[in-house]
Write a structure and sequence with these properties.
By secondary structure, this protein is of the alpha/beta class. The protein has nine helices and twelve strands. The protein has one domain: Ribonuclease Z/Hydroxyacylglutathione hydrolase-like (Metallo-beta-lactamase, Chain A, 4-Layer Sandwich), CATH 3.60.15.10.
Length: 263
């Protein structure tokens, strides 16, 4: 098994997103003046395993618009085809794509993918409901057109500390697991590498390892308590299995992947 970090540009996030206030100001602060982070990566992931090439998320595109709490820097060369080419892979070789969740910086690159994208059924239903559709319009971040989203049910039972899962490969070494919180249907993907490490491609379950250990929900999680419960589950899983934790926007994720640094 080989796992590649694909960097599709960078984003600067408002501190109010990363370090959310309690109570009624939690989301209001996203739209008020405030400090910004340094640029952080927008990662998606390519997994080579037994002659297959799986993608976890598809990254961002150059025509992305900034929103009140995120400022993007993406060039055409950094989009998914270029990011794959940088590690010696090609978009034509991809046979499976799974999304951790349906935010733009994780799904906009789907315009380059020919086949369907697997999305947890509850995530797909939520993003098609009225509230998210209104926000997509207000923030000018529409769901990519002409993309086929295929609902996926986590019907495989528990996997380690996670209460719901689905195998993505026949040998069970690539598994989608429930990590609800950042969005109601958020998933992560666990890859069991050749040494037995659990490489947890975490999407936006948290933005950093520091946030995971602090048990701190971000500002957009609809139910912060659900996010915190998921963080506790991830930490519990890491007590059972050597886990390399790779959030999509953590600048240290590439180093942890390369050096197999576990929680």
């Amino acid at each position: 098994m080989r796992i590649h970090a694909l960097r599709t540009g960078t984003v600067r996030l408002k501190h109010a997103f990363l370090f959310a206030s309690d109570g009624w100001r939690r989301q209001l602060d996203l739209f008020l003046p405030g400090d910004w982070s340094d640029p952080v990566p927008i990662h998606c992931w390519a997994v080579e395993h037994h002659g297959r090439l799986l993608l976890v998320d598809t990254g961002e595109t150059a025509n992305v618009r900034d929103i009140p709490f995120a400022r993007f820097e993406v060039t055409p060369e950094q989009e998914l085809p270029g990011a794959l080419a940088a590690v010696g892979l090609a978009i034509e070789d991809v046979d499976t794509v799974v999304l951790t969740h349906m935010h733009g910086d994780h799904m906009d690159g789907a315009v380059h993918v020919r086949g369907p994208l697997l999305v947890r059924d509850s995530e797909l239903s939520y993003q098609r409901s009225l509230g998210p559709r209104v926000m997509q319009r207000l923030l000018r971040q529409p769901v990519p057109s002409r993309v086929r989203f295929e609902p996926m049910t986590l019907d495989g039972g528990p996997f380690g500390a996670f209460d719901a899962s689905r195998q993505l490969t026949e040998d069970g070494r690539v598994v989608a697991v429930s990590t609800a919180g950042h969005t109601p249907g958020h998933i992560s993907v666990v890859c069991v590498d050749d040494e037995g490490n659990h490489i947890l491609l975490a999407g936006d379950a948290t933005d950093t390892v520091e946030q995971l250990r602090a048990l701190r929900a971000d500002a957009v999680s609809p139910k912060p308590a659900v996010s915190v419960a998921t963080m506790r589950t991830i930490l519990a899983h890491a007590e059972q299995h050597p886990t390399v934790y790779l959030p999509s926007h953590d600048p240290e994720s590439v180093t942890r992947l390369r050096e197999s640094v576990t929680l």
